Amino acid sequence: xxxxxxxxxxxxxxxxxxxxxxxxxxAERPADPMTAAELxxxxxxxxxxxxxxxxxxxxxxxSGVFHAVAxxxxxxxxxxxxxxxxxxxxxxxxxxxxxxxxxxEGFRGxxxxxVAMPDDPVDEAAAxxxxxxxxxxxxxxxxADLAIGETGTLVLVSGRGRPRSTSLLPEYHFAVxxxxxxxxxxxxxxxxxxAWHADPADPMxxxxxxxxxxxxxxxxxxxxxxxxxxxxxxxxxIFVSR
Length: 242
Fold this sequence. Notes:
Structural class: alpha/beta
Number of helices: 8
Number of domains: 1
Oligomer: single chain
Number of strands: 12
């Protein structure tokens, strides 16, 4: 029978395998979030290639799969190839306005059964049907509102045309983003969140915010790791350089 001391020693041993990537500290809230966010954007205008490379490295360390394409029109081919490798067909996607591109025809051209989420409110019957479609889908396509370099984290804000279920229910999640989503640090991400919520009328204000750091992972008390129990088993990030 394992004693308490033996159990705690095992926990310490397992935790020692991964050291913290950076020291924790409290960041002050910006007095003027909009100005602070604009400063971050100006800084990233020059430093985005370094932020992207850091994101790629950290994302892949977390078992994420990184892809780079030249334009949105190339996204369906990437998704289609992986879908065929996984024997997957059913796909849901954020709306064209939320995604920033209408990729429906491209997905269907890859042999995928693609359904886009609506921008407009729907009645209860349609809402039930959409929930069933989301639950049955094997692939979910979303954008990414932020991609954080130092942690390899994708940040998604929910809202009309961009339900959180699209990234949570399917086995395979693909997040499509460009350099406008890149930030270097969690502190910069916090500045952007403050700016989004500075104006209650802003469409980015008030939605559920998901921080996605790699595929879903679950470990039991014996620290046996299992993927995909409470979310996607694979997370793919597709960077569009355009």
